Amino acid sequence: MSSTCVFLHAHPDDESFLTAGTMARLAAEGHRVVLVVATDGEAGLADVPAGAELGARRRRETLASATALGCARVEFLGYRDSGSDGAVANSFSTTPVEQAAERIAALLVEERADLVTSYDPAGGYGHPDHVQLHHVGALAAQIAGTPLLLEATVDRDALLLTMRIAAMFRLLPPELTPDLLTNSYSPRSAITHRVRVGRYAVAKRASMAAHCTQSAGGDGVRTLAALLRLPRPVFRWALGTEWYVRRAV
Ligand SMILES: [Zn+2]
Question: HSE (CB half, 13 Å, CA atoms) of 122?
Answer without folding.
Answer: 16
